[in-house]
Design brief:
Layout lengths: L1 H15 L11 E4 L11 E8 L7 H10 L3 E8 L3 H7 L9 H8 L4 E9 L1 H9 L12 H5 L8 E3 L3 H11 L4
This protein binds inosine-5'-diphosphate and magnesium ion.
Length: about 170
């Protein structure tokens, strides 16, 4: 009888999907030293965001970064204000999805992170996969955890300039 109850519970847990956060409730999860002094030339830092409806998969997503050799050197859970979202996504302000995108990114807590490693910017983009989860390769974050082209689980800086700007926005002292 006990086993049957456990099986039923597991079935419900699977059906419920992303309902429970795997990550602690505290706002600041971890912040380590973030300057690149002493790091090798090819090392880069990039900004990653685990978007609202993928926060519950944070442990699995972080495991992908780590197994690809990206170190999470800073990480915090925050909820963006509309002003922060509009500043962050300002390169898209002319796009028709801009308003909806900003509303979405503010719809719940996100996890902002600095990833560090060799070719971190390109590596993170590869681990994330195509913007559209339907076009993303098997095993990528967006393929596994994204719902659609907007709710696509993760953000990753697309250039050194973006990385510098985006890291400053969320980790001004780093
Ligand atoms: P990226 O995140 O792969 O760099 P961008 O083109 O920079 O893709 O778009 C930023 C974010 O805007 C995407 O991650 C996604 O959340 C959202 N987005 C991109 N294209 C569309 C669209 O056609 N409809 C709705 N949202 C979109
Ligand atoms: Mg982009």
């Amino acid at each position: 009888m006990k086993i049957i109850n456990q099986v039923i519970f597991l079935l419900f847990a699977c059906l419920a999907g992303c309902t429970q956060s795997e990550i602690s409730k505290s706002d600041v999860i971890e912040v380590k030293k973030t300057n690149l002094d002493g790091a090798q030339d090819t090392e880069q830092e990039t900004l990653s965001i685990i978007k609202p409806d993928a926060v519950c998969f944070a442990e699995k997503i972080n495991a992908k970064f780590q197994s690809a050799g990206l170190e999470i050197v800073a990480q915090k859970k925050i909820q963006l204000t509309m002003d922060q979202a509009m500043e962050f996504y300002k390169e898209h302000r002319e796009k028709k999805f801009f308003g909806e995108l900003c509303t979405y990114i503010c719809s719940g807590p996100v996890i902002v992170q600095i990833l560090r490693g060799k070719d971190a910017i390109a590596k993170n983009r590869k681990i994330m996969g195509n913007t559209n989860p339907l076009k993303a390769e098997t095993g990528t974050i967006r393929r596994e955890f994204g719902k659609n082209i907007q709710n696509n689980a993760a953000h990753g800086s697309d250039s050194k300039e973006s990385a510098t700007r985006e890291i400053k926005l969320f980790f001004p002292k780093s």
